[in-house]
Amino acid sequence: MDYAGGFPEAVAGLADYESAGLEIVFVPEAYSFDAVSQLGFIAARTRQLQIASGILPIYSRTPALTAMTAAGLDYVSGGRFTLGLGTSGPQVIEGWHGVAYDAPVGRTRELIEICRKVWRREVLDYQGKHYTLPYTGGTGLGKALKLINRPVRDRIPVVIAALGPKNVELAAEIADGWQPIFYFPEKAALAWQAPLAEGAAKRQADLAPLDVIAAAPLAVGDGEAITALRDLLRPHFALYIGGMGARGRNFYNDLAVRFGYEAEAKAIQDAYLAGRKDEAAALVPVELLEKTSLIGPEGYVAERLAALRESGVTTLNVTPLAPALAERVAAIEKVRALLPEG
Fold first, then answer.
1. What CATH number does residue 15 fall under?
2. Which of 48, 106, 301, 338 to pair with 139, CA 20 to 30 A apart?
3. Domain limits for position 31
4. Would you state the pLDDT for residue 1?
5. For strand 132-133 and strand 126-127, is the pairing parallel, antiparallel, or unpaired?
6. Full-model pTM
7. Does 316 reside within a domain?
């Protein structure tokens, strides 16, 4: 959900997107407006479109509140909500929320287990390594409770945004979907094949096959103006690879290394952390920009769509880059028409 031009205006255009073939809209949450109020607004203004958090950080809400929020959004949308979760990073979690960024994999697992207990309206008695409910200590008056309301669904879909091997393995084991970033179809196996296989080997029998959700900026057309849009992505890549985390603790830099760009990742980070952001942006490999986007002529975009599907992607999360709504809607129509059969 890109609402640079105004949130109500963007939501008003969702009906046109839906008519063009859009099936789901993701709303992000960083140190911005919260995603929940905006998802509720979208739920009230739409009737069939699926809505998803993309993502809610696991540290910013208690597990029970996360479960209540998901059940509430599923209720007001008539069963159209997907709970997208992620760990974010130490800069946001410790800097903005003021809580420790610890045990991301363990906390994610326990939070999802707690959510599913809440949605089943079980009495919330949970003894985990990271969460204990009722709380031990304090006044000693905590009571094991169950959700008052009856949720629309007792199994709301859960998507984990993950990059690191352990978190990706967890997604393949217990989540309904997995959402990576900077998805490069031809190099995805280098970064994620092993953890996906390890998680799938332990996957619960009652779960459907893992929904693999790849994001990509979208612009279909010919000419220099279209291809130049790739270069507009350079500061975004430089921010994540170079500045989204400290040296030695940057998950996006680690991903670039696993993709085979070790020297480039180091150079981008060196320049970015030294304050030379333009230089860092210029150092982003052209191949990385091209192969993680859907920007170019119809034939090129069709090839990239085929590569995404062949690599295992099942849901495509696009951001149309055109300035006008009509152009963005046309891009959605084109990408639907170019999707390979099957």
1. 3.20.20.30
2. 106
3. 1-161
4. 84
5. antiparallel
6. 0.96
7. no
